[in-house]
Amino acid sequence: MKNFFIRTLTGIAIVAVQVLCTYLSPMSLAGLFLLLTALAVNEFLGILSPKGQVQVSRPLIIVGSCYLFFAFWLNSLTDASLLALFVPYLLFVVFCYIRELYSHSGNSIANLGAIMLSQMYIVLPLSLINMLAFYHFDCFESPIDYYIIPLAMYVFLWLNDTGAYLSGSLLGKHKLFPRISPKKSWEGSVGGALLAMASAVAVAHIFPVLNVWQWVGMALVVVVFGTFGDLTESMIKRRLEIKDSGKMLPGHGGILDRLDSMLFAIPALVVYLHVLSWC
User: Fold this and answer.
1) Closest by alpha carbon to 129, among 161, 152, 160, 159?
2) Based on the structure, what is the number of domains in the chain?
3) Which residue did the predictor score with more confidence, 189 or 38?
4) Is the pLDDT of residue 119 over 90?
């Protein structure tokens, strides 16, 4: 009961901070995800280090990661007119390779693999939140406030988790991916997806910047790729033989345990909105 109470309070606090920072101002949204980027990269490299897989300079990787987020932020605000900002990040990547070339570590390949995975798996997806918030997609039928798409994504992810838990608890019989996540079921996944898509109909009436079917499609994209993100983090934790990615969030584990679905949902949404813009 005590653990449930702590988990509930932490969950409420997480949702409140996330919604407040997203809605309050563009700077608070960017600041929140910049902080999450730094914390997630530090946590990811941290869960690898005790196993001896990697020996890297975490402060260096975090600085480079935050710079990539900054570059995406400025480019999204200027409709991708400042591409030269990415040059220092490319130099950072080259420096990481050269650094390992001259190091005496016996884990150079593992070190480089961990660095590049942290960038592709964590930093790039979180940096793309800037495109969802600040970039102007041609598919929008009217000017759109920066917070609408991020908040809609949160709602779809949260309702998918809620629907999956409820329908899985009541009806779950067929395992979705027992090798990686034994508790997930097909019934739960379908229930979560239906609840998220139903909420998209309501969102379409509140924010008519997309039509109903486009909102429903967005919810489906979030659900499908959010599930893959969840399964991917479960695979990593199983491989490392750990229960949670960290202990920063009482009752919930670590930062990655909360962000896992977003890491796949955000880039998938960027692609989805581009496809709608091209059609």
Assistant:
1) 152
2) 1
3) 38
4) yes
> Nearest-CA neighbor of 69 among 143, 128, 154, 145?
128
One-letter amino acid at 101 equals L
Pairing of strands 175-177, 181-185: antiparallel
- What is the CA angle 154-115-245, rounded to 5? 50
Q: 83 with 75: CB under 8 angstroms?
A: yes
Closest CA to 266 of 89, 74, 66, 120: 120
| Mean pLDDT within 30-51 | 91
How many whole angstroms separate alpha carbon 11 and alpha carbon 186?
25
What residues have CB less than 8 Å from 237, skipping those under 6 apart? 243, 244, 245
Residue with tokens 């260096």: 60
Look at the chain and count its residues. Answer: 279
Give the Cα separation of 40 and 62 in Å (integer).
9
Tokens linked to 37: 């980027």
Report residue 4: phi and psi, to 5°.
-65, -40
Indicate the residue type of 140: F
The three-state secondary structure class of 106 is: coil
Q: What is the domain extent for residue 243?
A: 2-278
In this prediction the pTM is 0.93
